[in-house]
Design goal:
alpha+beta; 6-stranded mixed β-sheet; 15 helices; about 20% strand; elongated; binds zinc ion
């Protein structure tokens, strides 16, 4: 039917009229009712959090999420659209803490868990009405009367069911997660807390000689945290970079990155024209993988043997850069996120010779010494044994506890993981069957992410995450 369009048309007005028409005549409900016999196409909304206001970005996602179900409806499918609400998470708790004037886990417990949870459950509906109005205004259809809600028992039970299935498939395991940790307060800190306490510090780093097994040669590796050296179980090189075996003017033979030779060994050229080193051979990083060296500290060798795990060899990972050090990094899986990941990838032993108070343990020669106080002792001992190449002063930004000013350490805590690496091939195969638009997102960004998929740490750290 032809209808003349007024040149002074008010679009908002017209949209409101359509919105009213849809509401009064139950058009969404009818879109399903009229297609009862049709094939079902199910849509579950990725749930927003209703204790925050909708913003302009949500318009885009709601419109895109409406388009595909609407297309299916037009093709004759019966399309139930289930709305959902995400009611869990730290933002909810933080909001309620603020409202009640509470600060942290202890005060919440004093207030009482039950009433606190009740407050959280109320808080999550704060902007529900605004979300419903907004969804309707942008023409987003969904069954808002029967939403799924993540705090409902049936929802939580289905999550437990999923976890049990994962467990049955032997894909759930207990491992370690690295957290920023204050050894004085005895608690992990959230990313936001860590960001509050950065300070510039000048410390001694260490360039260490690791003796290659079966060769009169050494790997040169650099670390800014000498106290982690007693827990060393591997070295790491960048698989794509070039490495050299060189005879240096100090009489030793070293393995290190080609790009850093002059920076590290250049000091041996005392006079003009004198050669600081002679390159004997060059390698790709991958050529060095699994090359073995002698444990730097006997305690780490003993721990590896006890755990019946292979250790003290060269690993490969692209996180190693050529900007500092020697291009070879020392790996202690208990004390760094990258280290921990490499530890999992290579099934390295887990060696954590530091206790919850930040003191080195009795297995090491520094029993009871605080990590930062152990640094100079480690350097002195390595020097005595001829294992210390250099201990250059190093200035960097280092996080400190915002409560007590203690330097934080990166420290492994027990955590549950889902073994995503075991299903990587399935993930990639499934991704390849998806009709991504634009294609570059599925093949590029998401595809790359799947190629590098890591095991998924699902434990929530409760203590100290509350500020
Ligand atoms: Zn502290």
């Amino acid at each position: 039917m032809y209808q003349k369009v007024d040149t002074n048309l008010n679009f908002v007005d017209r949209e409101k009229k359509v919105e009213e028409f849809w509401k009064e005549n139950h058009i969404f409900e009818k879109s399903m009712e009229n297609r009862k016999e049709g094939e079902t196409y199910t849509f579950y909304d990725g749930p927003p959090t209703a204790n925050g206001k909708p913003h302009i970005g949500h318009v885009l996602t709601r419109v895109i999420k409406d388009m595909i179900p609407r297309y299916r409806t037009m093709k004759g499918y019966m399309v139930p659209r289930k709305a959902g609400w995400d009611t869990h998470g730290l933002p909810v708790e933080l909001e309620v803490e603020k409202k009640l004037g509470l600060d942290g886990k202890e005060q919440i417990e004093e207030y009482g868990m039950e009433p606190f949870i009740k407050q959280c459950k109320e808080s999550v509906w704060k902007y529900k009405g605004m979300w419903e109005d907004f969804s309707s205004t942008v023409g987003f259809w969904a069954d808002m009367e029967h939403p799924y809600v993540t705090y409902y028992d049936d929802y939580i039970e289905s999550e437990w069911w999923a976890l049990k299935e994962i467990w049955n498939k032997k894909l759930l395991y207990k491992g370690f997660k690295i957290v920023p940790y204050c050894p004085r307060c005895g608690t992990p800190l959230s990313a936001q807390e860590v960001s509050q306490g950065y300070k510039t510090v000048k410390e001694r780093s260490a360039v260490v000689r690791f003796k290659v097994i079966g060769e009169d040669a050494y790997f040169l590796a650099w670390t800014t945290t000498p106290w982690t050296l007693p827990s060393n179980v591997a070295l790491c090189v960048n698989p794509d970079e070039t490495y050299c075996k060189v005879k240096a003017a100090d009489g030793y033979t070293y393995y290190m990155a080609e790009a850093l030779l002059d920076k590290v060994l250049g000091k041996f050229a005392k006079e003009e024209g004198e050669k600081a080193y002679e390159v004997l051979e060059t390698y790709k990083g991958t050529d060095l993988e699994y090359k073995e060296y002698e444990p730097l500290f006997a305690c780490a060798g003993e721990a590896a043997a006890k755990q019946k795990k292979k250790a003290h060899f060269v690993t490969c990972d692209t996180y190693v850069t050529m900007s500092d050090g020697t291009g070879i990094v020392h790996i202690a899986p208990a004390f760094g996120e990258d280290d921990s990941r490499i530890g999992r990838n290579y099934d390295l032993p887990f060696v954590q010779f530091v206790d919850g108070q930040g003191n080195l343990t009795k297995e090491t020669p520094y029993a009871g010494v605080f990590v930062k106080k152990a640094d100079p002792m480690v350097l002195t001992d390595l020097d005595k044994e001829g294992k210390l190449f250099d201990a250059p002063k190093f200035e960097h930004e280092y996080p400190h506890c915002w409560r007590c000013d203690t330097p934080l350490i990166y420290y492994a805590r027990e955590s549950w993981f889902i073994k995503m690496t075991a299903v990587k091939d399935d993930l990639i195969r499934n991704n390849n069957t998806i009709n991504w638009i634009p294609e570059s997102i599925g093949k590029g960004r998401f595809g790359d992410w799947l190629e590098n998929v890591q095991d998924w740490g699902i434990s929530v750290t409760v203590t100290g995450e509350h500020h």
